[in-house]
Amino acid sequence: MPEPPEDPQALAYILDRALPRLTFGLIRVQDGTQSVGPLALIRLGEPHRRGDGWVREIRGGLLAARRGGTVRTAWRDGEVEIVVDGYHPLLPRWLYRFTQRPFHHLMARLSLLQARGRVPPPGIPSPPDQRLAAAAIDVGICLAFARLLRRPALPIVAAYHVGCWSLAGRTAGGFLTRQRLTSVDGSRVSFGQATVRLLAVPVAIFRRRALHDELAGTEVVRSES
């Protein structure tokens, strides 16, 4: 985020504002409580200024073994960070490591990218006709592989796109049409972002807007090579 938000306290509410939209309303946030239906998952206290950031106490919830720990959000030298310290998950550590923690990391990353915004862009945005051309090439490749391997096309489409986006930043179609996929801050697209982007493609087609890029915090830009 090149510039700090006009309202410094807005940093403390980055997750609160992004979670309902990122989860399509499944997770609601009210008065610092993240809930699914009647279940209060995490409760956070009011933000307090500390140094160059804001700190909120973790006050419990269904996913917390006990009260304690903090969530700190700060802007420093053009970057925003979220740091969770002293949190005690209810889940066993090994299960938390493979379930709740990756979800927390993904939601935090997507929230930060949305707060950063799309200006300035990470590169020259690719025009719609080039994006459609790349998509057509990729669909053709996936269908050819599905027929060659005699396997359902959908798993191949998913593995191909998520793998190419997260590992190389481009598909074969993107390479041939000289474009690549990047996060809005110019960083590499994560596996979670790639998955969110792919899952949101049908909604984007239905609504006729790049909703998949908005949710995943990504941008398709021109590439010189």
Descriptive notes:
The chain has helices at about 15-20, 95-100, 100-115, 130-150, 155-165, 170-175, 190-205, 210-215; strands at about 30, 35, 40-45, 50, 55-60, 70-75, 80-85, 180-185, 220. It folds into two domains: about 10-115, no CATH class; about 130-220, no CATH class. It contains eight helices and nine strands. Strands 1, 2, 3, 4, 5, 6 and 7 form a seven-stranded antiparallel sheet that branches. The longest helix is centred in the middle third of the chain and has 22 residues, at about 130-150. The model has no long low-confidence stretch (mean pLDDT about 95). With about 220 residues, the chain is α+β, with helices and mostly antiparallel strands. It is globular and about 55 Å long. Strand 2 and strand 3 (about 40-45) form a beta hairpin. Helix 1 crosses helix 3, helix 4 (about 130-150) crosses helix 5 (about 155-165) and helix 5 (about 155-165) crosses helix 7 (about 190-205).
